Each structure stands twice: as structure tokens, then as C-alpha cells.
Amino acid sequence: MKRRTVLRSLAALGGLAAAQSGLVRGAAAADTAGSAAGLLAQSFPDTQGKPQPLSQWKGKPMLVNFWATWCPPCVKEMPELDALHKQHPGVQFLGLAIDTSANVGKFMAKVPVSYPVLIAGPGSIDLMRKLGNAPGGLPFTVLLGADGAIKQQILGPVDVGALEKTLTALAA
């Protein structure tokens, strides 16, 4: 179990290091058609254990944030993402937790957000890699247009000002 914790911490640090080096990628960095379709074909349980297909949000711009309760940069940006969600009702926000349902439930009781949070579990690191996150670091945010195409990938904490502009453009 300790090895898993160390690996998760390294993944989070990798995401932070990438963010500090300015790693923000656009859609050209990945096979956007296959990646986006693969993402929208997924289904994950919500915090009550009910499966939620991501396809239910097709046709709407989406912000998908991969995060974990044990990732300090992830935890820090959640209130910022929640505020952006409230400012941009035309964009579907979604949190995909790379964590256990029990950990997420405890965390959400302390730090609630107004957007859906689903339990993707540690196995979804491969999904993040297919979406352009080669190191598998956290946090990782993917922005999809209403057409389902990947418009932007952000490895590491989001820049709220830059994200605000992107969200406005997506919802237009």
C-alpha cells in the first residue's frame, strides 16, 4: 500500500512540475477524435455508486478535471473550478476522481462542489494518457467543444484567468 501512495505522490508531483514548466497543450498534441470518443464512451459511478455514462453530456462543451483527494494541487483548485462552473452554466463541468469512493465521499463532505464528481479510480490513469497526459500527472483538465473534440489539455493546476477566456469561447 505504501508503494501505491508513493507512486501517486510522484504522479502528482509530475503534474505540478509540468505545470510549472508551462506545459499546456492544445488539441494537436493527441489523437483528438479517438481520444474524445473514448472518453465520452466511458461510464463511471457517482458518489452513490450509480453508473453515469459520460455520453449523457454529448453536444455540450465540457470541462473534465481528473483529480484525487491526496493531490494537494487538485484540492487547491477545486474551489476555483467550482466558482468557474457557477459562472459558466453553458459548460458542463465534471470531476473524475482517481481515488476510492470512500475517500471521495469523505472529501466531498468537507469540500462540496456544484458539478458532478464521478469515481474513475486509479485504473483511469491510462485514460488520461490517451487524452495527452503522457506522465500521468495530476491534476489534469481536458476541455471538449460541443462537437466532442478536444480543444485543450492542461497538465497541472489551471490558470483561472486563461481558463475563464477559454470557457467563454467554448460556450459562445
Automatic annotation (TrEMBL):
Residues 1-19 form the signal peptide. Gene3D superfamilies: Glutaredoxin. GO terms for cellular component: periplasmic space. Residues 31-172 form the Thioredoxin domain. The keyword Disulfide bond applies. It comes from the Bacteria. GO terms for biological process: cytochrome complex assembly. Its main location: periplasm. One of its GO terms (molecular function) is disulfide oxidoreductase activity. The keyword Protein biosynthesis does not apply. PROSITE patterns: TAT (PS51318), THIOREDOXIN_1 (PS00194), THIOREDOXIN_2 (PS51352). It is found in: Periplasm. Keywords: Cytochrome c-type biogenesis, Disulfide bond, Periplasm, Redox-active center, Signal. This is Thioredoxin. It comes from Bordetella bronchialis.
